[in-house]
Write a structure and sequence with these properties.
This protein has 229 residues and is α/β, with parallel strands linked by helices. It has eight helices and eight strands; from the N terminus they run αββααββααββαβαβα.
């Protein structure tokens, strides 16, 4: 059995366990979807830089402190891979994180998660629609609901993301952005106009995928609620 096959089995096992854990309603202080670009502009090395960066962030003591300071109920987080309008995948289900052990376990799951979608065009609207559906139908209750979407290009497939962004705002969901500029140097303006929105919405910029780990750490600290110095 190959390495990738083993990872897929482990990934599916965690998904099964987590579905059982979330079969009853849970209250948390924040629901967070990490929407990760896996369109054709993202090669395997760049995908690995993203998942390694997310995993490292959840192992960071400042992120654990931010989670514990956010409230006694902790946070619920899920990672979504996305490319074109028909290609989105929930990676490992929703996970409730309240302490360092929870965070370390989630980091391990993310670090070992296989790339489910091999490529495709770019539909930010499709990613946002999928993330909204996950938040609305996950048996989790929270007063703060956030989609953290990262990407290195504009939508070239599906509808314009602005209408879905507005739908998220109407449903009390904030959309934040992490823009990666290796493909389009002026992508930040597009995200500001057409993607991010809602209460306290913000955007951060990574010059390329090598900067992703540092930026996702800062972004998570801000989203969870710990001030960034």
């Amino acid at each position: 059995m190959g390495y990738i096959s083993k990872n897929i089995i482990i990934f599916m096992l965690f998904l099964f366990i987590n579905k059982n854990l979330l079969s009853q309603e849970i209250n948390v202080d924040l629901e967070l979807v990490l929407a990760v670009d896996v369109s054709s502009s993202v090669d395997e090395k760049e995908y690995q830089l993203q998942v390694r960066g997310i995993a490292a962030a959840f192992r960071h003591p400042d992120v654990v402190s931010a989670i514990q300071a956010s409230g006694e109920n902790g946070i619920a987080v899920a990672m979504v891979q996305w490319s074109d309008n028909e290609e989105q995948a929930l990676v490992g289900g929703w996970h409730v994180i309240r302490d360092s052990a929870d965070a370390a376990e989630y980091a391990r799951i993310i670090r070992r998660s296989p790339r489910i979608i091999p490529g495709g065009q770019t539909s930010i609207a499709g990613a946002l629609s999928f993330a909204i559906d996950e938040i609305e139908n996950n048996n989790i209750n929270s007063s703060r609901r956030v989609i953290d979407v990262s990407g290195d290009g504009r939508s070239n497939n599906g509808i314009h993301p602005m209408s879905i962004r507005d739908n998220a705002i109407d449903n009390n969901i904030t959309i934040n952005g992490l823009v990666i500029l290796n493909e389009e140097p002026f992508l930040g303006g597009y995200f500001e106009r057409s993607v991010i929105g809602g209460h306290g919405a913000f955007m951060m910029v990574a010059e390329d995928y090598r900067d992703y780990a540092a930026m996702i750490l800062q972004k998570l600290l801000r989203e969870i609620g710990l001030p960034v110095s």
